[in-house]
Specification:
Elements (H helix, E strand, L loop, with lengths): L1 H28 L3 H23 L1 H55 L6 H4 L9
Length: 130
Amino acid sequence: MENVGQGYRTNSKLLRGLMYGALAGGMIAMFDRNTRLSFMDGSGRTFRGMKSFLTNPLEGITKMGEYSSRLRSQIEEISEDINFISEKVDELKEVPIQVAEVVMETKDVFTHDGSVPSAQYGNKALHSTH
C-alpha cells in the first residue's frame, strides 16, 4: 500500500512539471507576433461562438443538426462511390479470363483441322490454291 501512495506523489510531480513546461512553452510562443495574432483571432471566434450558443441554444442545435445531415449525406455518397469502384474492379478482374477464353476458342478453331473453315468466316481466299 505504501508504494501506491508514493507512485501517486511521483505522478503528481510529473503532471505538475508537464503543466509548468506547457505554460512556459505557451508563453515563449507568444513572443512571435503571428502566433499572438492567430491566438487572439481563434480565441475571439471561440468566445463569440460560445456566446452565440448560450444566447440562442436552439439555433446552435439546429446548425449542428444541419451539419450532421450534410456529413451523413457525404458519407453515403462516398460509400456509393466506393461500391461503384469495387464493382468496376471486379469486372476488370473478369476481363483477362474472358480474353483467355476467346484466345483458346480462336486457337481451337485454327487448330481443329489445320485450316480455317471458309464457310464459317466467308473467306474462300484462304483455301484457294495458287
